[in-house]
Amino acid sequence: MKKLYFITAICTLLTASSFAQKTPTKNDPEAKKILDAVSAKFKTFTSVKAAFSYKVENASGKTLSSKNGSILMKGTKYRLSFSGQEIFCNGTTVWNYDKGANEVTINNVDPNGNTITPQKLFSNFYDKDFYYSLNGEKKIGTKTIQEIQMTPVDKSKSFHTVYLQIDKASQTIYSTKVLENAGNRYSYTVTSMKTNIPAADNQFVFDKSKYPGVTVEDLR
To answer: 129-143 pLDDT, tens per residue?
Structure first.
């Protein structure tokens, strides 16, 4: 979950305290309009390539780590590179490669699983899995940002709140912040994004021949 809570997303320079805070217990029609627009916009792209920054904070706001990553998405396929890890998904199989250990773990995609994949953040999964409300707008640089607060319907989740920040002009996700029950906060901010770029299907499949000596753990 920590690797795949993307944006993107795909995130953050989030300062959620600058918005009026409220815990959603039902769905806000204004927030739904924004989320539906983001989902519709994403579905017009044949592919998306994005770079993002990642930050982990503890409950008091102290930064524990800060890293960068990138992701390429095409339909149900994605390839995520992040902090010594590469995750390949061709829509049916997931390869999780650990560079330090030179080991790859293979699993089938579980369509009913709890993992939030990059695509789920851009689809209408929110109607089923979350309560959501619009907190307001603010300026970050030249961007007008709309923040949506989301709480999971299933209270057994390991997190209790997700903040999505939407670029109002482009109708794309700017950042995501996940608050875990244990206290840590995981934030991802999109630093660049390109759409409708060439993306061959083989880019989303782990090619063992390119990783000499790799140990394969097939859990399918």
So the answer is: 788 999 999 999 999
